[in-house]
Write a structure and sequence with these properties.
155 residues, alpha+beta, five-stranded mixed beta sheet, 3 helices, globular
């Protein structure tokens, strides 16, 4: 699966970033009972954090780009935790947190930036359950943060 995903990333003009180190007292992933739980990932583009608030300084396209960047970081965390992507059986759930004004109600459209990428990369196994929630602030002023649960095969 790793080769197929690497090929798909290249086809889309995307590259996996290095898996980000935790910025507080937690671990990036926890594997338990065939599930890999991935801590919330922030959006980085060219090494810079994508910041701002939807409905204010960030438009829907910018939010979708931030969500896609979070999804790339999730895949990087999966790869780092498992030594590759060969054990991924299914993306089970994404929790999408969108830094947005009280009036902004298009969080699901923003979340599609991540959801669409998961389907592009993992095919049917990338189809997942999802929450898309508006919040008044995120760590470091990030525009989006996403966590995930991934079903994996046993080693």
């Amino acid at each position: 699966m790793t080769d197929r995903i690497d090929h798909k990333l290249a086809e889309l003009g995307l590259t996996l970033p290095a898996a980000a180190a935790p910025v507080a007292s937690y671990v990036p992933t926890v594997e338990v009972n065939g599930l890999l739980h991935i801590s919330g990932q922030l959006p980085f583009k060219d090494g810079a954090l994508i910041t701002g608030r939807l409905g204010d300084s960030v438009d829907i396209d910018g939010g979708m780009e931030a969500a896609q960047a979070c999804a790339l970081m999730l895949v990087a965390q999966i790869k780092a935790a498992l030594g590759g992507l060969h054990r991924v059986e299914r993306i089970v759930k994404l929790g999408v947190f969108v830094n947005s004004t009280a009036e902004f109600t298009d969080q699901p459209k923003v979340a599609n930036g991540a959801s669409n990428l998961m389907v592009e990369l993992f095919g049917e196994a990338g189809k997942h359950a999802r929450s898309a929630v508006g919040v008044s602030a995120l760590p470091l002023g990030a525009a989006v943060e996403i966590d995930a649960i991934v079903q994996i095969s046993m080693p």
